[in-house]
Structures are given as structure tokens and as C-alpha cells.
From TrEMBL:
Homodimer. It catalyses: tRNA(Trp) + L-tryptophan + ATP = L-tryptophyl-tRNA(Trp) + AMP + diphosphate + H(+). GO terms for cellular component: cytosol. It comes from Candidatus Sungbacteria bacterium RIFCSPHIGHO2_01_FULL_47_32. This is Tryptophan--tRNA ligase. Belongs to the class-I aminoacyl-tRNA synthetase family.
Length: 334
């Protein structure tokens, strides 16, 4: 199929903290699959990361690390555009423009803002945290995106993006395509290993909350061994009744490519101990190719930077068309 007839896919990941298997299963695994059938762009959203204070040295390191993880997971720069958000100025430009037309109430209603701001005093909440979703809308709308593969926690932001786009189109004429979120039902919300009521998160307090993509095999085994379970002893996928085991079964299924029903059959009559031991090996083996590829990429940061610069060049060209149209419609002198 011609590139122009394919659906456009856009998504991004923040270079903050360590990427974990929730990010992988909820987002990156979908990216890898989608790059073959769609016109895909995957971004490292450093401008989003600075909505909470970052150490510049670590931010730089983590930005390259996310790029290497994208590549190590199998995103191929020949198939998809990989780039750093701050290398394409149109993101910040359109983000600002969208800020001027987005009601405060809509931003204050965002669950992620409410959660993150609840952790600080009012004086400690930065304006950028509130405006986070308008920058995300800019990311998506610049590329006339059809589909946004994300985890469930980002669904509300994509819905807001759609309403921002609709409002702009109604006022200024057709400018933006209306995007839709793409969730993978089984992995849209991977829960914390230490608490099955809360999603797995980069910023969780406990190190035992998540398995990082670069955790060593022993660390992975240890974290799975101490992961919370539910009462009873049956290995069964039943989200309401057994949230912790269901989460582990979903992780098993994703890393082994076995359907959940097969896993339930395999462990019928067996206990949590046997299941967890096998799960640890499935995850260790599942992450092995990615970790090996990461080690190779780490030796060639210049090569990775080259891919990112080429990606930014292509992204800037494409984003440039949309931002030019937007500016013209607003009455900016070009
Ligand atoms: P971020 O960096 O927090 O997370 C990256 C991706 O991982 C998904 N995710 C999860 N999926 C399943 N289970 C979990 N426990 C889990 N935790 C995280 C997230 O949903 C996300 O898809 N705002 C975005 C970054 C962003 C973006 C964009 C995404 C900026 N601009 C434009 C899409 C399109 C974020 O904070 O992701």
C-alpha cells in the first residue's frame, strides 16, 4: 500500500524514570506490531518529562536510553520515524497555540493532573503539569494522526485531543484529523507487582512495584517471587475476584505468546509457587533479546543519535506543513 494511504500512528514515551514491562506491554509492543502496517512515528517526549523537575544529566541519559529501548524492542528506523520531541520546535509552538484555546476547567479535570498535583502543595504545582495535555494534543495533531497506541491511563488525554481538534476545526475550518486511542485490552493497564489496585508506574515509591526492562534476571526473579497474590490458590484470570493473579497471568500470556486459557489449563491444580517460578523464567527469557540488543546499541551512541537526527528531520518536515496551515488560519504573518 502507498504510504499516504496507510493510517498514521503516533505515540510517545517520557524519558523519566526506568521504562518497565507496563510501558512495554501497554505501548512499545503495540508500536512494533503497528510499524509494519501503518505510517508510524514514535517520539521521546522530553518536553513532557520536564513538567516535573529533572536533573539535566539524567534527562539526557534517559532520553538516549528510551531511544535505545525503542530500537532494542524492534522498532526499525526504516519502517517508523523515531525522534526526540524537543528537536522538532513545532511541538512547543502548536502546544502554546492550543493552550490559548483550551478552557482551564478541561485541564483541571484530567485524572493524571489531579493525581500528580495531589502529591504537591499548590505552590509546588507547575503550570506545565496542567498544560501537559495540550502539548500532547500538539504532538498528535501535528502529524494528522489516525491512531494513538497507549495504555489506559492516556485514554482521557487522547479524548481531550479529539475535542481540542474538533473545536479548532469548527472555528477555523478543517485543519486536524480527529485521532483515536488504540488500547490493547489485555495489557492496557498492567498493575503494580506490590499492589494490584494501582497501575504499574515509573514513579512508584517501591522498587518492587515494577520490573524494569533492564532489570537483571535475578532482580526479575526476586520481584516476581515477592509479588502480591490473592487469597485462594487457583491460577485463574478473573479481574474482580483475583486482580493480582490475573495481572501475573496477563504478563505470562504476553511474554509467552500463549493465550490465557492455555495458561489456566497448564497450572490447573498447581500452586502460586510453581506458577511464579515459571513466570519469572518466561519474563527473563522474554526480555533477553531486548536486553542483548540494548547492550550492543549502548556501545554506539553516535549511531543512535544519527537515527534520531534523521527522524527529527523527517518529523519536522511533516509537522511543518500542519503548523504553517495553523498559523495562516490564525492570522499570523508568514
Ligand atoms: P508515559 O511515558 O507515562 O508512558 C508511556 C506509555 O506506557 C503506557 N503505560 C502503561 N500501559 C499499561 N500498563 C501500565 N501500567 C502503564 N504505564 C504506562 C502509557 O499509557 C503510555 O502509552 N503522556 C504520555 C506520553 C505522551 C504521548 C504523547 C503518548 C506524550 N505525548 C502523544 C501518545 C501520544 C505518557 O506520559 O506516557
Amino acid at each position: 500500500m502507498e504510504k499516504s494511504k496507510k493510517q498514521t500512528v503516533f505515540s510517545g514515551i517520557q524519558p523519566s524514570g526506568n521504562l518497565h514491562i507496563g510501558n512495554y506491554l501497554g505501548a512499545i509492543k503495540q508500536f512494533v506490531r503497528l510499524q509494519d502496517e501503518t505510517d508510524a512515528l514514535f517520539c521521546i517526549v522530553d518536553e513532557h518529562a520536564i513538567t516535573v523537575p529533572q536533573d539535566p544529566r539524567i534527562l539526557r541519559e534517559k532520553t538516549l536510553e528510551v531511544a535505545m529501548l525503542y530500537l532494542a524492542a524492534g522498532i526499525d528506523p526504516k519502517k517508523a520515524v523515531i525522534f526526540i520531541q524537543s528537536q522538532v520546535p513545532a511541538h512547543a509552538e502548536l502546544g502554546w497555540i492550543l493552550n490559548t484555546m483550551t478552557p482551564l476547567g478541561e485541564l483541571e479535570r484530567m485524572t493524571q493532573f489531579k493525581d500528580k498535583s495531589a502529591k504537591s502543595s499548590k505552590a509546588g504545582i507547575l503550570a506545565g503539569l496542567l498544560n501537559y495535555p495540550t502539548l500532547m494534543a500538539a504532538d498528535i495533531l501535528l502529524y494528522q494522526t489516525d491512531l494513538v497506541p497507549v495504555g489506559k491511563d492516556q485514554k482521557q488525554h487522547v479524548e481531550l485531543t479529539r475535542s481540542i481538534a474538533e473545536r479548532f476545526n469548527n472555528r477555523f475550518g478543517q485543519t486536524f484529523k480527529l485521532p483515536k486511542e488504540l488500547l490493547n485490552k489485555q495489557t492496557a493497564r498492567i498493575m503494580g507487582l506490590d499492589n494490584a489496585e494501582k497501575k504499574m508506574s515509573k514513579s512508584a515509591e517501591s522498587k518492587n512495584n515494577h520490573i524494569a526492562l533492564l532489570d537483571t534476571p535475578d532482580e526479575i526473579r526476586r520481584k516476581i517471587k515477592i509479588a502480591v497474590t490473592d487469597s485462594g490458590s487457583e491460577i485463574k484470570y478473573a479481574l474482580k475476584e483475583k486482580p493480582a493473579i490475573s495481572n501475573l497471568v496477563a504478563i505470562y500470556s504476553e511474554f509467552s505468546d500463549k493465550p490465557i486459557s492455555d495458561i489456566e489449563k497448564m497450572y490447573f491444580g498447581k500452586g502460586y509457587g510453581d506458577f511464579k517460578k515459571d513466570l519469572a523464567e518466561v519474563v527473563v527469557e522474554g526480555l533477553k533479546p531486548l536486553q542483548e540488543k540494548f547492550k550492543t546499541l549502548e556501545k554506539d551512541p553516535e549511531g543512535v543519535l544519527k537515527i534520531l537526527r534523521a527522524g527529527a528531520k523527517e518529523a519536522a518536515e511533516r509537522a511543518g506543513r500542519t503548523i504553517k496551515d495553523v498559523k495562516k488560519k490564525l492570522g499570523f504573518v508568514l
